[in-house]
# Entry
Amino acid sequence: MKKIDCHTHIINEKIRDEYFSKTDGYAIVMQFLPKFCNDEIKDNSIELVKNDGRLFLSPVVDISMPIKPQLDRIEKIIDEKTVGLKVFLSYQTGKANDERLFPMYDFAKKHGLSVTFHTGSCALQLPSDNDIDGSNAKYIAEVAKKYPDVNFIVAHMDDPRFDECMLLLKDNPNMYTDFCGAYEPGYPEFDNIDWAIGNFAKAINQYPDSYKQILYGTDFCPPINLTCIDEYDRTIEGIFSEDKFDDIYYNNCLNAFPKIKEYFNKKDGEIK
# Structure
């Protein structure tokens, strides 16, 4: 089965090698904030993606810093495998509808990039402002309406605001979501996967076509205890019928990240 993991932190060679020892397919690398990196966690994702045909890149935008200089730097490294931007809401204080972020959305529109937001609860191993309220997907919905030509990914289904998140997606076709990062030691989902699957299914199955906006993602990053892969396959099997698998694992990601579709079209659409 063809797969695109819409959300990983394969930010260095060691993580890449561990990831591809467990699975195959393609993966999008969400670059880390500088404050997440240290002697144990090094990020050389830009060069890594450039030299690995299985990986795509979403450079990070640090919303605690001036936005335009960061966009200028990103513009210099954009290539056909740069498919999005990543914003760590919750970890950083701010809302998606803050006007100071609008140049980022203009930039995304100009370059055909999608914007992935961390929403809701945070990883236990990373420093955070814990602005859970600021990361609410309702603010993302506001900019999704303002920028209908840009796709917005609500990572983690706005945990724990699952029902509200799915309602917002129903009304905004340029919004997508995932349940990546759910299975982290220290959170109840890790200890009771069946319970977690039930919660996700309840929210997702409220609307008959919601599967079209659900992406497969793992949030894979062993240095912060995010090592689960098979658990996401089990979750997908527990929520969706088999005829939906190609959409969840692959087709929806092509729609959410149109630059990946462009890349595959240039490569005759084949998974190598």
